[in-house]
Every structure is written in structure tokens, then in C-alpha cells.
Specification:
Layout lengths: L1 E5 L6 E5 L3 E3 L2 E6 L11 E7 L2 E10 L2 H15 L1 H7 L10 H11 L2 E7 L1
Helix pairs in contact: 1-2, 1-3
Length: 117
């Protein structure tokens, strides 16, 4: 999916491809990219999902435990190898939720939660 957003300081418009993930009916993406800080506290954005552009509120979540839990859910859904590939993780084996939380913190991952506006 493609995330359309404006820089919080410059107001410049950006379009960024992000990996689409869903859990419990909620849309989210994981990223280590610097643009993630534009969504701390929430910010308006638009997503192109299945060819349709719609408004969303994007909120960055940096809690390693939450991120580890979401990562673990993706690994459970897709299997360790395919899940790691889908999340662009460089991990071996089948890590625990706590190991994933530590990995997320060390690597600077954040979740971007998307809520339809």
C-alpha cells in the first residue's frame, strides 16, 4: 500500500510505499524509516489500499512490547520464515515475543496504526 502524508515541519507532501499488515481487523505497518516520527501523537494521512485512496489517522507506536506482540502474530500467521521476510526482519529461527520486542527496540522499529478518518 502507499502512504500519502505531509511533513510535520515542512508541510511537504510525500508518498511512501509501506508493507500492509492486518491484525484483528486493524490496518498497520512497521517501519524503521525516519519518516515514522511524523506520526508520533497521530497525524492525518491517506492510504492507497487495493487501488482506493482513503483518509486515515496514522499513529506511531514505539512500545517494544506492543511491537513484539504484533511481530509474533505475523510470524504465527505466516510462519517464521515467511513472516520474517514479510516484516523485513533479519532473524534466525522462531523468536519469542520478548526476543522480538528486544529486537524491535534495538533496531528502532515503530508501528504505524491506521484508523479510518
Amino acid at each position: 500500500m502507499v502512504l500519502h502524508w505531509k511533513g510535520r515541519k515542512t508541510g511537504q507532501a510525500y508518498s511512501t510505499p509501506v508493507s500492509r499488515r492486518e491484525q484483528d481487523g486493524k490496518l498497520f505497518a512497521m517501519t524503521r524509516a525516519g519518516f515514522k516520527h511524523n506520526f508520533v501523537g497521530g497525524a492525518p494521512a491517506e492510504l492507497v489500499v487495493d487501488g482506493k485512496r482513503s483518509p486515515y489517522l496514522a499513529t506511531a507506536i514505539d512500545d517494544p512490547d506492543v511491537i513484539g506482540r504484533r511481530m509474533r502474530a505475523v510470524l504465527d500467521d505466516l510462519g517464521p520464515k515467511q513472516g520474517a521476510r514479510a516484516l523485513a526482519l533479519t532473524i534466525e529461527g522462531d523468536p519469542t515475543e520478548a526476543e522480538l520486542a528486544a529486537y524491535a527496540a534495538a533496531q528502532g522499529y515503530m508501528l504505524l496504526d491506521f484508523e479510518a478518518a
